[in-house]
């Protein structure tokens, strides 16, 4: 989860987040190279007193400064498209989970487990042992290292189901179903929030997901149904 002094991304817990962080590092590296080179030329022109007033055109230089930006854009473009289509791919899900957005809470359903469903409301902040505006009364529980299909929609206005450490952000649109592949690579508790302004209490509908072993998940779901 995010903390006040955090400068970079949250710790990754999915292949999607790993790819997004790698792509961010690539684009930042390219940007720093461009800024450094541009700053060097600006300082050189400012401090250099020797100017070639007779130079009117140079085809070689024009070709170079046209090709270099094109190559840089291609280097950025291909990884971006690869990640975009990789995130949209649903890879043989073991079972499905429905997430429905409401004003201002989330409801979840496990269709393959006797249609078990529950609502998830934000807990009031009562002690320093809680994470303010992030903890819920009922958390979403899934097994880790198992591919799942997440089906997301809304009952009223547009919401957005977002968990940064998983690299997931999907809009919940009324009358429309969006889906994504949900895969956690390690156990833990992960937090998110609605990322689409949805009304007065938009900031009070957190997401709390617990990733655990498959046996613990089965024992929990058997007790619930």
Structure description:
- The protein is an alpha+beta fold and 225 residues long.
- It has 2 domains: 68 residues; 130 residues, Cupredoxins -  blue copper proteins (Immunoglobulin-like, Sandwich).
- Helices cover 33% and strands 25% of the residues.
- The chain contains 3 helices and 10 strands, in the order H-H-E-E-E-E-E-E-E-E-E-E-H.
- The strands form 3 sheets. The protein has a 5-stranded mixed beta sheet, with no helix packed on it.
- A hairpin with a 5-residue loop joins strand 2 and strand 3.
- Helix 1 packs antiparallel against helix 2.
- The longest helix has 33 residues.
- The radius of gyration is 24 Å and the shape is elongated.
- The two termini are 30 Å apart.
Secondary-structure class: alpha+beta
Which fold name is given in CATH as the topology of the largest domain?
A: Immunoglobulin-like
Radius of gyration over C-alpha positions, nearest whole angstrom: 24 Å
Give me the CATH architecture of the largest domain, please: Sandwich
Largest pleated sheet? 5 strands, mixed
Q: What is the succession of H and E elements?
A: HHEEEEEEEEEEH
User: What's the CATH superfamily of the largest domain, by name?
Assistant: Cupredoxins -  blue copper proteins
Termini separation (Å)? 30 Å
Q: Taking strands numbered 1, 2, ... along the chain, how are they ordered across the largest sheet?
A: 3-2-1-5-8
Question: Number of helical segments?
Answer: 3
How many domains? The number is 2
Low-confidence stretches: none
Roughly what fraction of the amino acids lie in strands? 25-35%
Number of beta-strand segments: 10
């Amino acid at each position: 989860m995010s903390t006040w002094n955090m400068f970079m991304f949250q710790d990754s817990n999915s292949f999607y987040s790993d790819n997004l962080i790698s792509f961010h590092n690539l684009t930042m590296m390219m940007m720093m190279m461009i800024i450094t080179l541009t700053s060097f030329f600006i300082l050189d022109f400012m401090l250099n007193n020797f100017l070639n007033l007779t130079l009117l055109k140079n085809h070689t230089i024009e070709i170079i400064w046209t090709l270099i930006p094109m190559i840089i854009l291609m280097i950025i473009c291909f990884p971006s498209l690869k990640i975009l289509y990789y995130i949209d791919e649903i890879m043989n899900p073991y079972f499905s989970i429905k997430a429905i957005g409401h004003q201002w809470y989330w409801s979840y359903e496990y269709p393959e487990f006797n249609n078990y469903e529950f609502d998830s409301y934000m807990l009031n902040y009562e002690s320093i042992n809680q994470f303010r505006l992030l903890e819920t009364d009922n958390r979403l529980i899934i097994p880790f290292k198992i591919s799942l299909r997440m089906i997301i929609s809304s009952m009223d206005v547009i919401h957005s189901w977002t968990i940064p450490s998983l690299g997931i952000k999907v809009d919940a649109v009324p009358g429309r179903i969006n889906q994504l592949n949900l895969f956690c690579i390690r156990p833990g508790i992960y937090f998110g929030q609605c990322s689409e302004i949805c009304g007065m209490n938009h900031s009070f509908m957190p997401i709390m997901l617990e990733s655990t072993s498959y046996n613990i998940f089965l024992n929990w779901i058997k007790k619930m149904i």
